[in-house]
Amino acid sequence: MDQLGLLLDGFAAALTPANLLWALLGVTIGTAVGVLPGIGPALTVALLLPVTFRLEPTSALILFAGIYYGGMYGGSTTSILLNTPGESASVISALEGNKMARSGRAAAALATAALGSFVAGTVGTIALTFLAPVVSDLATSFGPPEYVALMAVAFVTVSALLGASLLKGAASLLIGITVGLVGLDSQSGQPRLVFGIDSLLDGIDVVIVVVALFALGETFSHLLTGTGHSTVEPLRERAVLSGADLRRSWPAWLRGTALGFPIGSLPAGGAEIPTFLSYNLEKRLTRHPEEFGKGAIEGVAGPEAANNAAAAGVLVPLLTIGLPTSATAAVILTAFQSYGLQPGPQLFSESGPLVWTLIASLYLGNVMLLVLNLPLVRLWARVLTIPAYGIYAGVVVFAALGAFAAGGTTADLLVLCAIGLLGLVMREAGVPVAPAVVGLILGPLAEQQLRRALTLSEGDPSILVSGPVTVGLWCVVAVALGLAGVRTILRRRPRPATRAGQQV
Questions:
Q1: What is the tens place of the pLDDT at every residue in 58-87?
Q2: Which of 99, 110, 348, 376 is the most exposed place for a label (fewest CB within 10 A)?
Q3: Which part of the chain is the DUF112 domain (predicted)?
Q4: Quick one: which H or E segment has residue 192?
């Protein structure tokens, strides 16, 4: 098959010493930041964006992909040992994993998480290899009306899923779109939202906005609440699985993978939903129901596999149609654009060698992660002893250096601080940051496609619903809005009053 030949060419490029070094560096950094609570892969990639401008695009993207995969691996360590998930997708692993750790089975919990992540990541990458080119070929038939509807799907689903409420998600999205429209109008040349400030005529650099919202916003938030000190007992065991644990774990790995990749591949996917579904499935299918809630190994194996399979699935809409469905994917999309690359249907045809080298590096990264996670568990546990104030001090320094490197003026530092304060206000108000990044990146593209569609139809808006694909996509938008509304109503519905004398 064509994919196998192209993948072999990708392996030939990925196996060069330089690219192997970037992949190893990426997975190592990713695992370390995944271990540290609050320092996720999205923030790390955002900080490294300005630093990697001088790298070749292939090397930089291999580094970022390694950080992405490594972050998904590392998040399980802090969930299991500290009951403090480093990533939202690792929340479920803490339910049973921390119980295992408290009962003296931390090594088994970490081992099943690492092996399950390897199995799911590899299977997910295989599926990505064969599915992504097919989706890309289908998307090449899309015109401006289809892209407008597709971006509407991205706006609605990201706002609904990544926010505590649809209203807050939409508010974040509008903030991002507004920031993205600052500068000169590409068609009329008229300044928009610059308020007489000449330095804003070229717009606000996406890298500065991403660094400010993620890095400074997070740091300011911790400054207000207190950073504290991280402590954890050192792990004295090797991460190994007994035969009984392995027999209970491998079916959960496969089931988690089967749930994670398809859901992660959807425009409204992500890694959180399949981890919850996997946990519920394992709880129903287990032969040891008495262990759930007390440290059932299936409750760690299944969600961790679902988490990492979804991580591979998220790359499908990102690479094939240019839609990020997670915060880290949105930042990686920024990395593509900083090198003049636009993920979408043309990416495989215009930058095929780069894409296939990137996919090949994912296979290598999975092997590297397994080698790093099993023997070095005690090292990652010690990373948790780093005081939080030291970590966030370094984040501020790198954020300032990165912003100055991206723009080269003091005005960029002022913009960085202003947007960082905006990020703090958003966090304090419970407004998610990820929809703002999606709006920032896709807002100008959506405007461009909308103008093209209306130009083709001479101003007739009916062109936006002129075909079966557009109608189907708008139906998805309506369903997503409806589900988000129902979820909000259910959350606000008061609990039924308990009967007199009934224990709550």
A1: 888 898 888 888 877 777 777 777 665 656
A2: 376
A3: 20-437
A4: strand 191-192
